[in-house]
Amino acid sequence: MLDPITSLLCNFPLAYSLLLSSFTATLTYDTLRFGEFEDFPETSEPVWILGKEYNALTEKDDILSDVTSRLWFTYRKNFPPIGGTGPTSDTGWGCMLRCGQMILGEALMRRHLGRDWRWARGQKQREEYISILNAFIDKKDSYYSIHQIAQMGVGEGKPIGQWYGPNTVAQVLKKLAVFDTWSRLVVHVAMDNTVVIEEIKLLCMPWLDVAGACVESEGVGELNGCLEGACALTEEETPLWKPLVLLIPLRLGLSDINEAYIETLKQCFMLPQSLGVIGGKPNSAHYFIGFVGEELIYLDPHTTQPAVEPSEDGQVLDEMYHCQHPPCRMHICELDPSIAAGFFCRTEDEFDDWCMRIRRVCLLKLIHFNIFFPFLCVDTHFADFSDSDRLERFFDSEDEEFEILSL
Hints:
By secondary structure, the protein is of the alpha+beta class. It has one domain (about 45-205, about 240-380). It is about 35% helix and about 15% strand. The chain contains 14 helices and 11 strands. The strands form 2 sheets. Strands 1, 2, 4, 5, 6, 7, 8, 10 and 11 form a 9-stranded mixed sheet that branches. The radius of gyration is 23 Å and the shape is globular. The chain starts with a helix and ends in a 17-residue tail after the last helix. The model is unreliable at about 1-35, about 210-240 and about 365-405 (pLDDT under 50).
């Protein structure tokens, strides 16, 4: 005689199918951890991970260690209700929010630990690392928790529980970073695909603006006296350069990515300042950290794990925040054209170096494709806007989340 559950499944195949569908859509961590994953390819083509080049034939362990060391934020369940009465899980709607956490988490790791820091299971962690993790714990008083992002998104016109686009999450992260007095980041979202050097330098070096105000009020002759007096700023009060997180929302095509942008997109992952790209497929966000050949390498937030509660001493069970299997890959042509690229410049020299590298990429692509890339023009003093004036946008969009590239 069949037991009741088996009988139910036999008599209701549709219900069984729906049950399986629900199960695969919301995997637990244990299921994912012991599942089968495609191994990293044996290829002679270079592998690029956030500005670092690897050889897949001789450095596979180094590749996997680098990927594992990135912070991996996924769906969570059973966290405190958002807003006190809202959802207790972000499964099905929070993937872009989690990708936003990952790209900002990478910036915080660069800021406090450096690009070469590596995570290993069971090792004693630095205090800075624990502080970074605590900034993302799923509770209302963490700087970058799902609670803070979801509630701040209401001001961007996104009700709690609604899916975000790349630009929306970038704008929310910009607002939240203001409250992070420990990291003291400047998060700048470059709209209209244009980065203006003077604007960014005033944001990252606010003392320049203060000095200018002093000059206007006291006169040029009083500059030294003014800076030594009321307008003096010590390095402890205002550092010479506030670390920059630069997010650039882009649209690289209509419904599919325009192949003209593929090589330039790859170049972004090769820059040492790269924080990767947030994007994905329609209504399914991923955090892209590199590429090999024509495949993008990414971390996937679509795994539901239980919420984590720090211990009394602030320590966090951190294994669930690191992807310990070969990373996911997808062909670059499958990428949804709406993305946001991220870059981190810890110092002014790094920002100047980024500008130099971007100009070089822009020049190569301009010659090769005869295409104007407005998101690669970085200085109002020398950027040639005559081309953009002559060239019309090849499409328009009513979607406020995306800024459109011009051809």
